[in-house]
Amino acid sequence: MDLDVPLAPDELSTSHDGTGEQVTTRDLSGLAPPARAARRWTPRRVVVTPAALDHAHGQRIVERVESQGIEVERLTANRLTGVRGQDERQTYAIAKATMAIVVSPPSRRKLQPIPPSADWRVDLAEGCPAHCQYCYLAGSLSGPPVTRVYADLDEILDNLASYVGTATRRPEEGTTFEASCYTDPLALEHLTGSWEQTVRHFGGWDADVQLRWTTKYAGVDRFVGLPHLGRTRVRFSINALPVTTRFEGGTAKLEDRLGALRTLALDGYPVGLTIAPIMPVPDWREHYGHLLDLVASAVDGVPGLDLTAECITHRFTPGSRDVLLGWYPRTQLEMDVDQRTTKRNKFGGRKHVYPKDVMGELRTWFGAELARRLPQCRVLYWT
Ligand code: SF4
Prior knowledge:
Shape: globular
Oligomer: single chain
Strand content: 15-25%
Bound molecules: iron/sulfur cluster
Structural class: alpha/beta
């Protein structure tokens, strides 16, 4: 049965990530290959709404997609049909293979704070073609996980000017804008060009600002040589091999992400590590130690390296657990409420995190080992 899915507004669904160009420049041997290596995403179905075609960037995306030999279906209304299957898993498969070029909801003009990562969240897309079994977006967005890319990029970027100086979470960075909350930039860049345009926008913007985004992909070639002026920090989401090889379907190999990090660092970008989600898997000290050593090798000898780390432990909510078990019914991911501590937010929502003693052990170890193995790395936060 097909149901209509409104494409204009606020109740989208998805996650983040992108392409798989080979960019490794260092010997990062000793890494086991993931079950499925990333390829540049070719959506099975691409649609564009009439409203999106009224925007210059919407037309640019259509041209870019068609130039890659991918047909773009012109919708006659701002609604998408045909993304629901017989059951939840079939709906997931159909939606994950679909990209919709749409106009962002008007409510997105009012930016939301996004602690602890950045001052403000700016969305250029929503959705991701990867298949991480712990996906951060599960349960936080509604409807089938269609990837929506925004045609009104010029207006989205123009809107940022009024936020300069309105918050400075880390004063040395100026006002920070996070552009990967609901998507993975490099998963989509070859289809949209949106992040390249945004990097150029920040590079040409004479203000105390920083663009930030994180990715599990490695296709960075198009960002090398851009006039970024050091105003974009690209972080690579990385994890210990037992986690990344088992739970991060469709993403780039760890060695390729680290190669991409080196490529951008050599091009003068501030770079970062999003170490997430941290899990106390068997022998976790050994595996995460190996991960940090690989990073040290990847950044070895980079002149003027500006490297940060953000450490995020695994957590889930009752809603995200239900969604993920629907998408990945045979997952081996531990989501056992009895092994967790439950935290409540001010609205009564629950999230399940590791118990205090486990959290303490992890935090102490990462603090010491990041300082020892990556002394040039600045840790921004632990959560
Ligand atoms: S967690 Fe994985 S699937 Fe979810 S948004 Fe990020 S890259 Fe995409």
